[in-house]
TrEMBL record, chain A:
Coiled coil: none annotated. Its main location: mitochondrion. It catalyses: a 2-methoxy-6-(all-trans-polyprenyl)benzene-1,4-diol + S-adenosyl-L-methionine = a 5-methoxy-2-methyl-3-(all-trans-polyprenyl)benzene-1,4-diol + S-adenosyl-L-homocysteine + H(+). Component of a multi-subunit COQ enzyme complex, composed of at least COQ3, COQ4, COQ5, COQ6, COQ7 and COQ9. Residues 34-58 are annotated as: Disordered. InterPro entries: SAM-dependent_MTases_sf, UbiE/COQ5_MeTrFase, UbiE/COQ5_MeTrFase_CS. The lineage of its organism: Eukaryota, Fungi, Fungi incertae sedis, Mucoromycota, Mortierellomycotina. Its EC number is 2.1.1.201. This is 2-methoxy-6-polyprenyl-1,4-benzoquinol methylase, mitochondrial. GO terms for biological process: methylation.
TrEMBL record, chain B:
Keywords: Lyase, Membrane, Mitochondrion, Mitochondrion inner membrane, Ubiquinone, Ubiquinone biosynthesis. InterPro entries: Coq4, Coq4_euk. GO terms for cellular component: mitochondrial inner membrane. GO terms for biological process: ubiquinone biosynthetic process. This is 4-hydroxy-3-methoxy-5-polyprenylbenzoate decarboxylase.
């Protein structure tokens, strides 16, 4: 939907109440697309081995055909990319920064570590990784590949890195692709694999874990930072109110996008809880230590970790 | 979980907490950045409340207003037949209205839809209020500068009492230069106070049927004097 007047005229003359913001195809368009793709509900009279219904999966609290999820998630992150960092600060009161700091300290990378940071988009983890190696070991041979399915998020990341000393060095590179199929990454090639606040958006978690296992060197470490389940019933209630009342409203006010943030908070509730996810990591072949996870902020987030041995 | 179901096409039912948050948040955002039309719209809708009911009741007491509520006309470039309006003689309301649209390079088609009003009829009232705004410019002669819009908000405040108009009227001037503020309070506001209260209630006007009449005649019948440009 185009804005009503050219921006220059807008600044000079037009004010208030009559300007429509530029908005890329938002959720209402997606909802229409979804509706068209729903398989018709006809009684299955003939024996059709291939089946007439495509597999369904969840998209937040909605059920959708599996092959649509990737498109919809891509749309969400294209919409939120430019305001992603601001919204993270607003939604978590800045706590996400502490989580990410702790995440990298837990990884404790050594000099020369090669990291694949999946769903790395705007570069928060990659930046901290390189800073840690520089500050703790005086090292600048560590390398990180920032990998993301969404080009808009990668653009924001490239923009941020362009203002750092890592710009135009071999320490950081950017790659667009699908975490379920790490096509150009050879087996046994990475020392570490991180995925922060990305895995709950994928269609097939098990495929992502298998790919992570494949590309890690023996002795390599898989680490995941993700929203998780709050066990404490009182805190859980407060968290729910905050998630469902405050966050979509803030998304609307700050980014003019209620729907994307509604999806985000719903997708958190659909992700497997800590123990279940730890089991999935084990099933992919990783060796986990102890329970395999550490709760952060009462379970609002959790760090899961496994080794390829 | 939403308190009511979806009542009309663009309806987004929200809980009382969300409504309060949105009202406050949109107020600050709209003041800070008046180009966020979506925030201005959200502010009006979350604070409209009983005032929309009052406007609707006023409309019910007037025959033309009743017809509008019954027939629910929409104002789009299609329904207004802008090409036909351009053929009208100069000085007619329709011709001047289209001249205004062409000068400003705007069209009646890109208004924000109403989302946060929990009643289908009141959502229409809000929509109608928004859609008829451009006619107010033609009627009063006020330009679409920031101070012109604020002057119109004062006028609308006298007419409708909508809190949104009050907020714009009282906080909007903070964004003006002191010269603009002086003209606003010396010329525009006294005009708005007098004309806003004396005139016929403009929500009862079926503007679509007034297009071929001269502007002065429309102003006389609606009891609105054009706003003096200082």
């Amino acid at each position: 939907m185009a804005s009503r007047t050219a921006l220059k005229q807008l600044l000079n003359r037009r004010a208030v109440a009559t300007w429509t913001p530029v908005r890329s195809a938002g959720f209402s368009t997606m909802a229409k697309v979804l509706h068209q793709h729903q398989p018709p509900r006809t009684p299955n009279t003939s024996q059709d081995p291939s089946g007439t219904q495509s597999t369904q999966t969840h998209f937040g609290f909605q059920n959708i055909p599996e092959d649509m999820k990737e498109t919809l998630v891509r749309q969400v992150f294209a919409n939120v990319a430019t305001k992603y960092d601001i919204m993270n600060d607003v939604m978590s009161g800045g706590i996400h920064r502490l989580w990410k700091d702790h995440f990298i300290r837990t990884l404790a990378p050594t000099s020369g570590t090669k990291l694949l940071d999946v769903a790395g988009g705007t570069g928060d983890i990659a930046m901290r990784f390189l800073d840690y190696c520089k500050e703790t070991h005086g090292d600048n041979t560590a390398q990180v590949t920032v990998f993301d399915i969404n080009p808009n998020m990668l653009e924001v990341g490239k923009e941020r890195f362009s203002k750092t000393p890592y710009h135009n060095t071999s320490q950081v590179s950017f790659m667009e692709g699908n975490a379920e199929k790490l096509e150009h990454i050879p087996d046994n090639s990475m020392d570490a694999y991180t995925i922060a606040f990305g895995i709950r958006n994928v269609t097939h978690i098990d495929r992502v874990l298998k790919e992570a296992y494949r590309i890690l060197k023996p002795g390599g470490r898989f680490m995941c930072l993700e929203f998780s389940k709050v066990e404490n019933p009182l805190i859980s209630k407060v968290y729910d109110v905050f998630s469902f009342e405050v966050i979509p409203t803030m998304g609307h006010i700050i980014a003019n996008d209620r729907d994307s943030y509604q999806y985000l908070v719903e997708s958190i509730r659909k992700f497997p809880p800590q123990k279940e996810f730890a089991k999935m990591i084990k099933d992919a072949g990783f060796t986990i230590m102890g329970q395999g996870y550490e709760d952060l902020t009462f379970g609002v987030a959790a760090i899961h970790s496994g080794f390829k041995l | 979980h939403p308190p009511t179901g979806k009542l009309y096409e663009h309806h987004i039912p929200i809980s009382p907490i969300q409504r309060a948050l949105l009202a406050v948040g949109s107020a600050f955002t709209a003041l800070y950045n008046p180009f966020r039309g979506d925030m201005v719209a959200a502010l009006g809708e979350t604070t409209g409340g009983i005032f929309l009911s009052r406007i609707r009741d006023q409309m019910l007491q007037d025959p033309e207003g009743r017809r509008i509520l019954k027939e629910r006309p929409k104002i789009t470039s299609e329904t207004m037949q802008l090409d036909k309006l351009r053929q009208l003689p100069d000085g007619t309301f329709g011709r001047e209205y289209v001249r205004f649209l062409d000068d400003q390079q705007v069209s009646p088609d890109t208004r924000e839809p109403v989302c946060f009003v929990d009643s289908e009829e009141l959502a229409y009232v809000m929509q109608r209020y928004r859609e008829t705004h451009d006619f107010y410019h033609t009627l009063t002669g006020l330009p679409v500068t920031v101070d012109g819009e604020i002057a119109l908000k004062w006028f609308e405040m006298m007419q409708t009492g909508l809190p949104m108009t009050m907020l714009s009227s009282f906080f909007g001037p903070l964004r003006l230069t002191s010269a603009e503020r002086e003209r606003l309070f010396d010329v525009y506001v006294p005009w708005a106070l007098e004309n806003g209260s004396n005139s016929k209630s403009l929500m009862n006007v079926r503007w679509e049927e007034w297009m071929d009449r001269p502007v002065e005649e429309v102003q006389r019948e609606l009891r609105v004097q054009p706003c003096p440009q200082a």
